[in-house]
Specification:
Helix content: 25-40%
Strand order of the largest sheet: 6-7-8-3-9-10
Largest sheet: 6 strands, mixed
CATH superfamily of the largest domain: P-loop containing nucleotide triphosphate hydrolases
Radius of gyration: 19 Å
Number of strands: 10
Distance between the termini: 40 Å
Number of domains: 2
Order of helices and strands: EEEHEEEHHHEHEHEEHHH
Oligomer: single chain
Structural class: alpha/beta
Number of helices: 9
Shape: globular
CATH topology of the largest domain: Rossmann fold
């Protein structure tokens, strides 16, 4: 069943002297429990699609639906995890997480217990009273995930959340987040420049064209990769074949005309 639906979505940005067509006729769905990645050329509009799905900006034409209900504004059923952790440096880790519950007016013992359970799953129970400055980049991103999941969103939007991390930390965090989302039966839409990351984590991959962005290709990742953790998937014999296939499609995209 489709949790998120984009139907004939277009987005134009207006300046004083010009109109820029960013998104053109984008159509796709993300089913409940599915992990879908969006890749494409730099600047093609990947993050714009996430912002539209989050209700942060309005689309120009078409429909964007969450469980058949139009998305017209931000929604606590949608969680958004960014490249930066954006933790408040003057608050402890526990206070940062509680702040998320305060904002949505859901701070109670039950929800606090849920977030502490998540913190334990992130192997950070002993850091609840630490300040953000005392944590590594990977730890901060784990806290950011707990804060994002605090509202128990049905849809999680991930905007290159691993891009600022070193490679080893990135691989470990991919595995941890992938496992957590599967255990919590969450639905996710990831934007990434990393083809390997998209293959390792996703059920499907959408390839966008140059701006104005349209969907050029859909790739359904085979079960032998989907059933593995991201780290294990990278070691599978067919992984490199999929990388080469998607890389070639990305390389063959027509450059943006001027």
């Amino acid at each position: 069943m489709a949790l998120l639906t984009l139907r004939d979505v277009k987005k134009h940005f207006f300046s004083q002297n010009d109109v820029v067509e960013a998104i053109r006729n984008v159509n796709f769905t993300v089913d409940t429990g599915e992990f879908v990645s969006i890749i494409g050329p730099s600047g093609c509009g990947k993050t714009t699609i996430l912002s539209l799905a989050a209700g942060l900006i309005e689309h120009s034409e078409g429909e964007i639906l969450l469980q058949d209900t139009p998305i017209t504004k931000t929604n606590t059923n949608i969680g958004y995890m960014l490249q930066q952790d954006y933790l408040f440096p003057w608050l402890t880790i526990g206070q940062n997480i509680d702040m998320a519950l305060n904002i949505i007016k859901r701070k109670n013992k039950k929800n606090q217990a849920y977030t502490r359970e998540l913190l334990a799953q992130m192997n950070l129970s002993d850091r609840e009273h630490d300040m953000p400055s005392e944590l590594s980049g990977g730890m901060k991103q784990r806290v950011a995930l707990v804060r994002t999941l605090a509202a128990k969103p049905s849809l999680l939007l991930l905007d290159e959340p691993f891009s600022a991390l070193d490679f080893q930390t990135k691989l470990k965090l991919e595995d941890l987040i992938h496992r957590t989302l599967k255990e919590k039966e969450k639905t996710a839409l990831l934007v990434t420049h990393d083809i390997s990351e998209a293959i390792a984590m996703s059920d499907r991959i959408l390839l966008l064209t140059h701006r104005p962005a349209e969907i050029k290709k859909h790739f359904k990742i085979p079960e032998e990769l989907r059933e593995r953790s991201p780290l294990d998937a990278r070691q599978h014999p067919t992984f490199q074949d999929w990388f080469q296939l998607i890389w070639k499609e990305l390389e063959n995209l027509e450059p943006e005309t001027t």
